[in-house]
Design a protein that fits this description.
Blueprint (H helix, E strand, L loop, with lengths): L4 E6 L2 E6 L10 H16 L5 E6 L4 E3 L4 H4 L4 H20 L5 E5 L2 E3 L1 H8 L2 E5 L3 E3 L13 H9 L1 H10 L2 E3 H7 L4 E3 L4 H13 L3 H13 L7 H12 L3 H11 L9
Parallel strand pairs: 2-3, 3-5, 4-6, 5-7, 6-8, 7-10
Antiparallel strand pairs: 1-2, 8-9
Helix pairs in contact: 1-3, 4-5, 5-6, 9-10
This protein binds 4-(N,N-dimethylamino)cinnamoyl-COA.
The site of 4-(N,N-dimethylamino)cinnamoyl-COA has 25 residues, from helix 2, helix 3 and strand 6.
């Protein structure tokens, strides 16, 4: 079904691997479309609770947008494609109602770091290298990087990373809050899956509400506190709320995901 990605289902976790290792998993148009399709299917699948994104091979998560593909673009093609790519994948991931974790197994550059940054949680292996090198190619980050990097690491450090086009190591990314954890390469999937499993113990509908509320803080013209109140209220109508409170009173673990 897919040419550029591999999708695997494991314990209610959907593992999506970008599989163009010879091009260091660079994101071309087809890969962006396939990722959109796979994430949408996972979001609609009641058996899936968490999605993991990673890259094939030991070297790279995603080494950016496919430079060969956009080398000849005009101004309007560039603008249109950035908009379409953001809607189809990057904003789509950020707003996905199921948690998406990026397991960064190597280079996460340009569009690759942007893909990791729109994910809800980032785990990196110690060999990972991250950066937004776009200005070295005469463009700027076009998939939300100028916004999300500053949100995650603060404006000053984001300015430095974007202006210098440099790469940072996993440990520095951890120190800056760009990634949540750093582990050895061969422990990356184990650690990522362990976090996914601990998320799966909890209510999927409450997590969807939490994603919406947290994201509201970053949306222009939206009052995040109002969204939180709205989502909080909605929780009281869910079967997960009934199960969660019943289980507490019966001194047992809730069973949210039958
Ligand atoms: N695109 C296409 N091919 C890539 C690639 C990329 N981003 N990155 C690597 N490759 C290919 C290389 O061309 C090489 O292919 P062959 O020569 O073997 O055919 C192969 O992957 C292995 O790469 P290297 O031989 O270079 O491997 P090294 O270990 O020596 O170096 C590296 C690894 C990651 C340091 C190096 O490959 C590198 O600097 N890669 C480029 C990093 C980069 O600048 N990425 C792009 C950032 S800009 C847009 C929206 C967003 C964007 C653009 C447009 N629109 C909506 C229009 C975003 C742009 C970016 O992401």
């Amino acid at each position: 079904m897919y040419k550029n990605i591999v999708v695997e289902e494991k314990n209610k976790i959907n593992i999506i691997t970008i599989n163009r290792p010879k091009q260091l998993n660079a994101l071309n148009k087809d890969t962006i479309e396939e990722l959109h399709t796979a994430i949408k299917l996972a979001e609609d699948n009641l058996n899936i609770g968490v999605i993991i994104l990673t890259g094939a091979g030991e070297k790279s998560f995603v080494a950016g947008a496919d430079i060969k593909e956009f080398a000849d673009f005009t101004i309007s093609q560039g603008g249109n494609l950035a908009k379409k790519g953001q809607e189809l994948l990057f904003t789509y991931i950020e707003n996905c109602s199921k948690p998406i974790i990026a397991a960064i197994n190597g280079f996460a550059l340009g569009g690759g770091l942007e893909l990791a940054m729109c994910s809800h949680i980032r785990i990196a292996s110690s060999n990972a290298r991250m950066g937004l090198p776009e200005v070295s190619l005469g463009v700027i980050p076009g998939y939300g990087g100028t916004q999300r990097l500053a949100q995650l690491v603060g404006r000053g450090k984001a300015n430095e990373m974007v202006f210098t086009a440099g790469m940072i190591k996993a440990d520095e990314a951890l120190r800056l809050g760009l990634v949540n954890h750093v582990v050895e390469y061969n422990e990356l999937m184990e650690k990522t899956e362990a976090i996914a499993l601990s998320i799966l113990n909890n209510s999927g509908s409450a997590i969807a509400s939490a994603i919406k509320s947290i994201n509201a803080n970053y949306k222009e013209g939206v009052n995040g506190y109002n969204i939180e109140v709205e989502e909080f209220g909605k929780c009281f109508g869910t079967s997960d709320f009934k199960e969660g409170t019943k289980a507490f009173l019966e001194k047992r673990k809730p069973n949210f995901r039958k």
